[in-house]
Amino acid sequence: MAQAINEALDIALASDERVVVIGEDVGTTGGVFRVTDGLQQRYGAERVVDAPVAESGIVGAAFGMAVGGLRPIAEIQFLGFAYPAYDQIVSHVGRIRNRSNHRFTAPLVIRIPFGGGVGAAEHHSESSEAIFAHTPGVKVVVPATPYAAKGMLLAAVDDPDPVVFLEPIRMYRALKQEVPEGRYTLPLGKAEVVREGSDLVIVAYGAMVREAQRAADVLATEGISAGVLDLRSLSPVDEDAVVAAARRSGRVVVVTESHRTAGMASEVAAVVQERALYSLLAPVERVTGWDTVVPLKRTERFYVPGPERIAHAARRTMEG
Amino acid sequence: MAQAINEALDIALASDERVVVIGEDVGTTGGVFRVTDGLQQRYGAERVVDAPVAESGIVGAAFGMAVGGLRPIAEIQFLGFAYPAYDQIVSHVGRIRNRSNHRFTAPLVIRIPFGGGVGAAEHHSESSEAIFAHTPGVKVVVPATPYAAKGMLLAAVDDPDPVVFLEPIRMYRALKQEVPEGRYTLPLGKAEVVREGSDLVIVAYGAMVREAQRAADVLATEGISAGVLDLRSLSPVDEDAVVAAARRSGRVVVVTESHRTAGMASEVAAVVQERALYSLLAPVERVTGWDTVVPLKRTERFYVPGPERIAHAARRTMEG
Amino acid sequence: MEMIRLLDVDGTLMGDAPIDPEETRRLFVAMLTGRAYDAKCTAMQKQGRLATYAPFEGQEAAQIGSAAALRPDDWLVATYRDAAAMWFQGYPWVNLLLGRMGDERGGFAPEGVNVLPSSITVGAHLIHAVGLGWSERLQGSDRIALTLFGDGATSEGDFHEAMNFAGVFATPTVFVCQNNGFAISMPVERQTAAEHLADKAVGYGMPGTLVDGNDLFAMIAVVGDAVARARNGEGPTFIEAVTYRLGPHTTTDDAGRYRNDEVVAEWRRRDPVDRVRTYLRAADAWDESWESEIAAAAAAEIEAAVAEAEALEPLEPSAMFDRMFAQPTSALDRQRSALRRDGALDA
Amino acid sequence: MEMIRLLDVDGTLMGDAPIDPEETRRLFVAMLTGRAYDAKCTAMQKQGRLATYAPFEGQEAAQIGSAAALRPDDWLVATYRDAAAMWFQGYPWVNLLLGRMGDERGGFAPEGVNVLPSSITVGAHLIHAVGLGWSERLQGSDRIALTLFGDGATSEGDFHEAMNFAGVFATPTVFVCQNNGFAISMPVERQTAAEHLADKAVGYGMPGTLVDGNDLFAMIAVVGDAVARARNGEGPTFIEAVTYRLGPHTTTDDAGRYRNDEVVAEWRRRDPVDRVRTYLRAADAWDESWESEIAAAAAAEIEAAVAEAEALEPLEPSAMFDRMFAQPTSALDRQRSALRRDGALDA
Ligand SMILES: Cc1ncc(C[n+]2csc(CCOP(=O)(O)OP(=O)(O)O)c2C)c(N)n1
Ligand SMILES: Cc1ncc(C[n+]2csc(CCOP(=O)(O)OP(=O)(O)O)c2C)c(N)n1
Ligand SMILES: [Mg+2]
Ligand SMILES: [Mg+2]
């Protein structure tokens, strides 16, 4: 996926003079995940900008650039370090259009690697995307595959409004997938059915989509047909797709590694019961990270959902 | 309520040397809402500290004081200005116990006025409590009455862990209620049944409790018996109380002025369908603020839920 | 550090005037017009016709002096207290009034006016001016961005990050801090241990200037130099304009709780408008009748704006959903229907 | 601004030594022990026995010199790269190792050791040191708080707010910035337009000192003075210790991408440990056999800590719920049951 994102950034920089990349270590080193590798060499330090360690400054400056007519793509090194920039995002990035009644807009993209499963140090496994989904005025999307990453990032750059683009760290080097050459875009705000299933649907996004598919494989061996819906967009949630999937089977498992309380799983469960209550054969099962700090390497696997936990929840819905 | 909170602060300062109050304009002027009125005069500028305009600094310094053995009560002037302090809260205040495996703790209280309905300027009507409820390691509570405010604040000061104490701005001068003299505490983490009802239950908190009661009055005139449950605690949510209320009537309306997506209403709906699905006679109705910036004075009333919107949702559950 | 002053408190000129009498008269009119707006708003707020209002009386020279140094197409990024500067840079009175009335339509500045709606979050907007100036440079324009903020803003982390970025990337940004003595109730002496706010500039490798903010001429000279530096690609400048907020923090503030009247009276003697009047009179460029003329014109201008704002058709509630994105999201469309269905019931 | 140096690069003493040979030998041992730990961790990480590791080779004088100026009960608030300083102030090697192994039990410093677990968020911890020192003063103690951070941290807004609070409230805080040349790949020259990071102090009304961070004596003298000022209630001090990170940012970093070996080689010639050795040798307080002795002892000490850490019984997964609050909330108890029920399935 890192490669696909790099391609998207390359295409964006090449095709639009207004595109600027800014973040910590994005230039000389090509980013701590090498996602911006080679871009500064190709497009120069004026357009691929190494910024001081100041997240609020990075987002705030990118915001100003966007209002001024550029198309900045800001990178925050890890989601755990995005909090200092949260005020800029909630108070200004997501509001300038409203505040100026459309006179000024902030078409910027904020790229943020997120999520656990790699045994990283504290703050490096955050999955607090619900906070951004709860923030008015910004779209929040999460690719699960290289293909989606490239198409969604190019769509995000084209979008006339701010987009928070969350990149699952675990998937950067996972999934060697053929990605179409050149430019293509995928619609923002739409979920994707990645697997059909008649007994139940597993709703997931980001790195959890792969876990959901693994769970579906396990379930298949038991004769349980589980579909998988990749949300792709957390704000807005593609309610129609979620509700349609829920109605089809009447059983829903929603998976996220974010904390449980007021997380994305709660939103999906709320939507399903709101619009598909009478089709439900069992409660929507929330498989989530816990309301704890993400544990460090030695016990992290007890926090991040995996196939068995998902399958177990799925089996419960079958009993319902 | 402002008076009740002032009393609680007075009692806390008087009874415990370790209690310190710090915030913007909390001293000389007694706070923009006069909640800390007279305290600096009584306890001195060393214990009731006027801080520079720096929210991260206020919370970070209070955090250090708490780790150092004090019992700081930090005030953020408005919830809309708490975002610069969010990194300190999520990255340190809520984590030091986990990070140090209980060696260090941060028993501080962060008081924050919040909510709309008073036609305030931008940023002064925020209701983003879900973000704090989604934050591990901090308890989040909201009083709806002067009585609750005093007892819960004193409990928060006694609590060995950090508490975010949200004060509904609309209620500061509303409800002239007799409050017991002297010290008393109310348990944190417990919801309160404020009105019994056999047909449905309205779950609310903060200023919305009063709106829920008004809605219940309206419904009563139509022969609909609506109970009202005051959540009081957003983290943790008193699930047992919510589920019990849901089971009793099978109909639930949950009210919040926070944004809809991934907000507190979604959490309550998710819990209800999870644990009381088979008792539900209708979908849990979410009556919320919208996923927009809180509108300014001229159209704010179309954003903040009121009795009629709540009653209307309640009637829908009766049809279900 | 020495404070730059060109017009003495008693109005006598020290050194050369940076502008001629004609231009001085034009700016005098502007200051008077700003003051008329300020008085009107305070009055309207008392009548309940405006929400909370933040008066700028006493800061007219700092604001008009800053805006006067700009080119019409330069960016201005200012606060809730900077109506005079915003207006002088092209932001109409009616827009400013609508904002105060709680009507989002006020936020729409006319095309070509590069003034952001006033920023309420203390400190956060400085970096916006950095990004705006930066974007102009990358687009090959020589527009610059000037940001106005208060003494209180210098305590925020965002002040630091904005100053540092401006220094590191040498952006065409002019930072004008109106040190008006207070952040609500906090006197500036208790906001920092530094002798002057201007002392902070060296930590960012940029020039820091201390100027009498109640001296129109000094403001024009100092801000003018900073704007020229920025436009010539010589980078940012930090300016501490020492002034004083004669009124309360806002119409809901009781300044009596944290300052005594003698100090206020002393500052009234340093009034920025009186100072220019005295100068003009001495230069035979002022007389009673002219002032009453322009005062009447100013009053009429403000009244017209008020009438226009109050005559505007009601704001469509569902516009709140349209203001969020170029195209409302599916979530917002659903919520709009919900509002249609029952949201208006409480209205 | 002039850089304070007492031991020249070649080890010759300029001026008076702040400590006697015996104490110098003790600190030399400490620096060697730190270096042994550093080498061991880098090796273990390659073997997959540790998660990412952040080497501090080259910064031993800055870290030991800072910690040596503290009283055993003073507070130390440091970063992921400051293991040597933390250990010297009483934080056991085994705790530091456990943290790197991804085991939260490492965070529990022994009672009486006032060292916070290392802070990973750049810049955020400085204000904690301000609050800690402040709390000591309010409790009538003369303990002070010293915080270590890097050049990169000076770009964060939290640096600014911490420095400002320390200045305004004159807290007993010592700010020691280890300017090791880089914030990951960002050279310090591109992090600020100021000539020196120490230039930032004046903006906060506190003394700022520039010191050779590879000079143990200079560190002890300069930090010692700052600690004394803090303890005497004279307020905070900012110290820029100029040093160099000889290793990569972390074990996953490829420093070759952003710096060339000549510069690194040049800095190796300014090695802080060699400098003290040369000095001791000249003072007849060093010989080959003694160094091999202490080197062996250091190695043994580290090996023992590694053995202890690796021998620790497995970490109970459900402890994650217990670590959040004094008493787990109802939500955490429910989640613990869910983990019991099926959470372990993927383990
Ligand atoms: C981030 C933030 N914190 C707190 C506030 C509340 N507040 C509004 S104005 C103000 C004081 C600002 O003082 P200063 O910067 O000197 O500007 P002035 O009001 O004097 O023009 C404060 C604390 C705010 N608007 N934003
Ligand atoms: C708030 C925050 N932003 C970004 C990071 C990622 N990061 C880790 S270390 C580092 C560089 C810090 O440089 P410096 O302060 O000089 O310390 P050094 O690593 O050189 O010791 C960065 C950007 C972080 N840990 N925290
Ligand atoms: Mg001010
Ligand atoms: Mg460094």
C-alpha-based Rg of chain C, rounded: 21 Å
Kindly report the average pLDDT value of chain A.
97
- Average pLDDT of chain C: 97
What molecules are bound to this protein?
Answer: thiamine diphosphate, magnesium ion
Tell me, briefly, the overall form of chain C: globular
Helical proportion of chain C? Answer: 40-55%
Largest sheet of chain A: 7 strands, mixed
End-to-end Cα distance of chain C, whole Å, is 57 Å
Strand content of chain C: 5-15%
Largest sheet of chain C: 5 strands, parallel
> From the structure provided, what is the oligomeric state, counting identical versus distinct chains?
heterotetramer
Helix and strand composition category of chain C: alpha/beta
- What structural class do helix, strand and pairing data of chain A support? alpha/beta
Number of strands of chain C: 7
As residue ranges, the low-confidence spans of chain C are none
Please give the share of residues in helix of chain A: 25-40%
- Order of neighbouring strands in the sheet with most strands of chain A: 2-1-3-4-6-5-10
Continuous helix count of chain C: 12
Description:
The complex is a heterotetramer, with two copies of chain A (320 residues) and two copies of chain C (347 residues). Chain A is of the alpha/beta class. Chain A is built from eleven helices and twelve strands. In chain A, the strands form two sheets. In chain A, strands 2-1-3-4-6-5-10 form a seven-stranded mixed β-sheet, with helices on both faces. Chain A has a five-stranded mixed β-sheet with strand order 7-9-8-11-12, with helices on both faces. In chain A, helix 8 links the parallel strand 8 and strand 9. The two termini of chain A are 38 Å apart. With 347 residues, chain C is α/β, with parallel strands linked by helices. Chain C contains twelve helices and seven strands. In chain C, the strands form two sheets. A five-stranded parallel β-sheet of chain C has the order 1-2-3-7-6, sandwiched between helices. In chain C, strands 4-5 form a two-stranded antiparallel sheet. In chain C, a hairpin with a 2-residue loop joins strand 4 and strand 5. The radius of gyration of chain C is 21 Å and the shape is globular. The N and C termini of chain C lie far apart (57 Å). The model of chain C has no long low-confidence stretch (mean pLDDT 97). Chains A and C meet through helix 3, helix 4 and helix 5 of A and helix 5, helix 6 and helix 12 of C. The structure holds thiamine diphosphate (2 copies) and magnesium ion (MG) (2 copies). One thiamine diphosphate sits at the interface of chains C and B. One thiamine diphosphate sits at the interface of chains D and A.
